[in-house]
Amino acid sequence: MEEKTELKPFSTGKFLNFALGFLGLQFAWQMRIILSAPVTEGLGASPFIYGMIWLAGPFTGMVVQPLIGAISDNTKSRFGRRRPYLFMGALIAAIALWAFPNSANIAGFLGHVFGFPIPIWLGLAIAAAMIWIIDACINIAQGPYRALIPDVVPQEQHAVANSYISLAIGLGSVIAAGTAPFLNYVCHYQMSVPAQFVMAALAFLLAMTWTCMTIKEKDSRDNKTEAKTEKTTGFWEDLKNFFLLSPQVGRICLMQFFTWIGMMCLMIFFTSYAIHTVYAIPDLTNITPALSAKYADLQVKATNYSSICFAIFNLVCFLIAIPIGYLAQKFGNKTIHVISLLSMVIAYIGLGVFNTNPVLVAAFMALSGIGWASVCALPFAMLSKYIIPGTEGSVMGIFNIFIAGPQVVVCTLVSWLIKVCMFDTPDGVNYHWEYAFYVGAVCLVLAALTTLTVKENK
Which SS3 state, helix, strand or coil, does residue 424 take? Predict the structure, then answer.
């Protein structure tokens, strides 16, 4: 077997082109984060049922990413190892993104075609199924995408490469979250929820197609051109070997576990927090049509506000993504990551305390963006130092377990906490959605403390 060919350094233009597909992927993920709560609540989902639906993310992440990562490591095709999964994940996700906000219409169509009365739960069941498909397909694309970095980028540029991924995540999220509010405030046109999902579907599919067409991945049918060692182990062997890479790997995984409990407290619950806490709209699952009509305009305003906050959050991520990469090169991944996590702790406490002030909430979301930029880049850069060539897909997939697993905690325990902490309002019940941020702040402190235990080689 030939020796590994030295990888050529990436220029700024190559980094930007490399990250474009992730920008499209983030469109899909951002629409799923911002608008899944209003869609499912409109179909009758309580906070706990909504949390159960969100289990799609962790379960598909824990199963799909490690499995697809291991399969892609051993894929042999003229298109390379990773590109087939990037394209197919985007294609199927695009179809599901269109179907999700149209779940009630699809349920009605099925009832008409097959001639049966439409059960009240059918629309919600279809919406839940579409969320599972969207999440599975995002994971199908995301794992191999991360594995492309050690495949094609020199090791000394891994932190910068992951920072460009953070840049793409930030920019994609800003555009995805900001389009509807921008059209509303500037052009006085309110973009419908289904239209926003169609926008996300097209962005994901087109951007990922561009990446697949322009990325230079070698024909994996020719073992002699593979920049890796011979690999014959299966997934379970990879899982065992993963924890034997270094004692530091376990610490990095524990850091991720606490980090992503904190992150998902924001991702899952912020839109509901904006609607029901910041704008004080009561729970809309069981109220009368007249009361629902009373809050219809305010709910649109609150949903747009949530989108603006997510746009601000991701704009900060976009602006500091590249500086964080270069700061990490100079001062170390660990130092910069701890500082970033602690900034997010402060922001979460602010979101919990000042929960009825829209201006302060938006400011604390901006502060959270610093931590988000670091979370999107530096843990992967820290882990990449321990990856054995030829196991990139498996390692990134297994590492995703410590991103997906914490979501189970949030979807079950935190959603249950919110469900039981209800209170009465003149127009119905409401919930203490802000409690999610107190839980998140504690977990992010634990993540920062765990990061301090990681030993980095200069």
Answer: strand
**Residue 266 CB contacts under 8 Å (≥ 6 apart), including other chains:** 348, 368, 436, 437, 440
- Evaluate whether residue 8 is within a structural domain: no
Tell which residue, 227, 214, 264, 206, has the closest CA to residue 90: 206
Q: 221 lies in a domain?
A: no
Helices (H), 115-246: 122-152, 158-187, 193-214, 235-242
More confident residue, 280 or 149: 280
CA dist 253 and 370 (Å) reads: 21
Q: Indicate whether 229 belongs to any domain.
A: no
> Using CA of residue 264, residue 267, residue 268, residue 273, what is the dihedral sign?
positive
Q: What span, in angstroms and rounded, lies between the C-alpha atoms of 299 and 381?
A: 40
Which helix (H) or strand (E) is 399 found in, with range?
helix 392-409
Q: Is the pLDDT of residue 88 over 80?
A: yes
- Mean pLDDT rounded to a whole number for the chain: 83
CATH number at 331 reads 1.20.1250.20
What is the rounded CA–CA span in Å between residue 83 and residue 68? 12
Residue 458 lies in a domain: no
What's 81's DSSP letter? S
Residue 198 has pLDDT above 90, yes or no: yes
Helix, strand, or coil here: 386? coil
pLDDT at 70 over 90: no
Range of the domain at 173: 13-216+234-452
Question: How many domains does the chain fold into?
Answer: 1
